[in-house]
Design goal:
The two termini of chain A are about 20 Å apart. In chain A, α4 packs parallel to α6 and α4 crosses α11. In chain A, strands 1-2 form a two-stranded antiparallel sheet. Chain A is mostly helical and about 350 residues long. In chain A, β1 and β2 form a beta hairpin. Chain A is globular and about 65 Å long. Chain B is α/β, with parallel strands linked by helices. Chain B has one domain: Rossmann fold, CATH 3.40.50.300. Chain B contains 8 helices and 12 strands. In chain B, the strands form 3 sheets. Chain B has a 6-stranded mixed sheet, sandwiched between helices. In chain B, strands 2-1-4-5 form a 4-stranded antiparallel sheet, with helices on one face. Chain B has a two-stranded antiparallel ribbon with strand order 11-12. Classes of the chains: A mainly alpha (about 350), B alpha/beta (about 270).
């Protein structure tokens, strides 16, 4: 279906679907809002119309809980979608995503260190204040991704088996580290870590939305400008270099951009797996692997998917909430297995891709 | 003109190439010969600027290769490798269009699109332009890659910092290995077609009969050294072939057209 549209039409279609999903996500939940109510609260919040006392409760819930949550989930989806696209382009393999390559687990470990040990033990983190969590998340995510990339690539080629095995090892070590932290943590902290390891949007607030938006915007702009170089990289590092791409700088920048946005998102909402895998894969199958299309489209589709998952998380088991990571894993893991089976069949028939 | 002056290359103290000096001249089909492990691929990577020599220098038209940016170099020379696997499905046209990446700033111009179309027609892949690259046969894929490198060093280009026609180089790294005879001949004919337009062609070839059919300059590598330079197929001594490739060789005359080919035995 997407194949027949132009790039712009495809973006417009995904954009409209995303807008509808965001509207639905903003309205549905323990508190439900009609579009008219939402418009009224938003106008009051912006000071366009005087704030009515009768609206105080609904307005507060909508403006300080629901709205940032909708933004955080959408932005997180966009981050994971674009990140999956970048990682798959870098590793030249469609089964890579930030969860597999260690980025999320590394970021989670970094952030958990701040949660549990806090300023008292990590004396260097104390003066950093609120920035400590995203900063350590970035350090952890970067170290983990770099390690996996270095181990799995030699002579300009990435060995995907080594990559997956290195990913398993790095994920295990980071998971163990997070495990130790939750073991020594006092109860409320431990509960935080557990919940957060499964991914959750319940803690979403405006600063979180701001941080993810900032890191996403910067990395997205850079990814768009690098679309051509990422296309060339599909041919391999040597061929890309013959086409005038500074591949070493490209590889470094992809890892940095990817880690910046994934760490920021992970620090705020926890670990959400499989979105980064499924989104680019679906777009490649529906349309094409050109990065000029793939980068913006994976942001839109990632955001769309995450809004839907977040609504499900809110309405599935009322009044409780499911961690979103559980839903993405339940839905994403079968898709991952299906991709593997399909690739094996294609390989058996002498076709790749 | 591509010149190597006293080029040596070593990895971790292991010498791979030793003091190689040679010139690949424009308008000639330069062929690099040598057994496996003689350093042919390394020589090509040094000549294309992908690797930097441990000592010595590589120059394009008298300018040291280190003085070019990767982009400037990409407008001047293209490389056709043995197998190019594509990580993801792109259309044939998209793959060929990559050859124009070094030439446009933001979006491809009408000229870029024309070049892509002509390159597709030249290799005979225009009818399959919308096909997904991974669904092609090995020979068809290599034709598409040939169209991509042709588009990259399109001889009629100009106005992007390089002069039209002159100074362009095409490197072929075992381009026809594992291709059937039709595709071999097709790829090498296309390369030969560039010679009249002032291009330099440099090919690493394994099949000696194919090499002698196409080449007009031969550079024989042996253990990382340049063992022999020949100005024509007849100037490559039989003893040299026998020593370097560790075979017995004899030349067979073709009674029909007076040409000759080689037969080998251990």
């Amino acid at each position: 279906m997407l194949r027949r549209l132009s790039d712009r039409q495809a973006f417009a279609l995904l954009g409209v679907l995303l807008a509808v999903a965001m509207l639905a996500s903003a309205g549905i939940g323990a508190f439900s809002f009609t579009p008219a109510e939402m418009a009224r609260y938003a106008a009051q919040g912006l000071g366009w119309t005087p704030a009515a006392d009768a609206d105080a409760l609904g307005r507060n819930v909508f403006l300080s809980l629901r709205l940032p949550r909708v933004l955080v989930s959408g932005l997180t989806g966009a981050v994971l979608g674009v990140s999956g696209t970048l990682m798959q382009g870098l590793f030249r393999n469609p089964i890579v995503e930030p969860g597999l390559a260690g980025t999320s687990a590394g970021a989670a470990l970094g952030a958990a260190m701040v949660f549990v040990l806090g300023g008292a033990t990590l004396s260097f983190a104390a003066p950093l204040g609120a920035v400590a969590v995203p900063l350590l998340a970035f350090a952890g995510g970067f170290a983990a991704t770099m390690l996996v990339y270095r181990v799995s690539s030699s002579l300009g080629k990435v060995n995907v088996y080594t990559l997956l095995l290195a990913g398993i090892a790095v994920n295990a070590v980071c998971g163990a580290g997070t495990g130790i932290l939750s073991y020594v943590a006092r109860d409320p902290q431990a509960r935080n870590i557990t919940f957060w390891n499964l991914g959750t949007f319940t803690t979403a607030d405006w600063p979180a939305a701001g941080l993810i938006a900032l890191s996403f915007t910067a990395c997205f702009a850079w990814s768009l400008r690098s679309a051509r170089a990422l296309d060339a990289l599909m041919l391999g590092e040597d061929e890309a270099a013959y086409l005038g791409v500074d591949t070493r700088a490209l590889v470094r920048r992809v890892i940095v951009a990817n880690t910046v946005m994934v760490s920021a998102a992970t620090a705020m909402v926890g670990v959400i797996a499989f979105v980064g895998l499924v989104v680019p894969h679906a777009l490649r199958m529906l349309r094409s692997s050109n990065h000029a299309f793939l980068v913006p489209a994976s942001a839109l589709l990632g955001a769309l998917l995450m809004e839907v998952v977040d609504v499900l998380a809110r309405v599935a088991v009322p009044p409780a909430e499911l961690p979103v990571g559980i839903i993405t894993a339940l839905a994403g893991a079968p898709v991952f297995l299906w991709i593997l089976v399909r690739r094996q069949r294609l390989a058996g028939a002498g076709l790749d891709g | 003109m591509v010149e190597l002056r006293g080029v040596s290359y070593a990895v971790g103290g292991m010498p791979i190439l030793r003091d190689v000096s040679l010139a690949f001249e424009p308008g000639r089909f330069n062929v690099v010969l040598g057994p496996n492990g003689a350093g042919k691929s390394t020589l090509l990577k040094l000549a294309t600027g992908l690797l930097r020599p441990s000592s010595g220098s590589v120059a394009y038209g008298g300018v040291d290769v280190a003085d070019f940016t990767t982009l400037e170099l990409a407008r001047r020379r293209a490389v056709l490798s043995q197998h190019v696997e594509l990580a993801f499905a792109l259309s044939v046209r998209d793959v060929v269009a990559m050859g124009r990446f070094p030439h446009f700033a933001r979006a491809p111009t009408a000229h870029d699109r024309d070049v892509v179309q002509h390159a597709l027609e030249m290799v005979g892949m225009a009818p399959l332009h919308a096909r997904a690259y991974p669904t092609l046969s090995g020979g068809e894929r290599q034709k598409v890659q040939m169209a991509r490198v042709l588009a990259q060093i399109w001889p009629e280009d100009g106005g992007d910092g390089t002069e039209a026609g002159g100074g362009r180089c095409l490197f072929l790294d075992e381009p026809t290995t594992s291709l059937d005879v039709h595709f071999q001949i097709h790829i090498l004919d296309l390369a030969r077609g560039l010679l009249g337009r002032g291009c330099t062609v440099v090919a690493v070839l394994h099949d000696l009969n194919v090499a002698f059919q196409y080449g007009d300059r031969f550079f024989v590598l042996e253990d990382g050294r340049l063992a022999h330079v020949a100005a024509g197929a007849d100037d490559v001594p039989r003893e040299l072939i026998e020593r370097v490739f560790r075979v017995r060789a004899h030349r067979v005359r073709d009674p029909e057209d007076g040409g000759s080919f080689w037969r080998f035995a251990l």
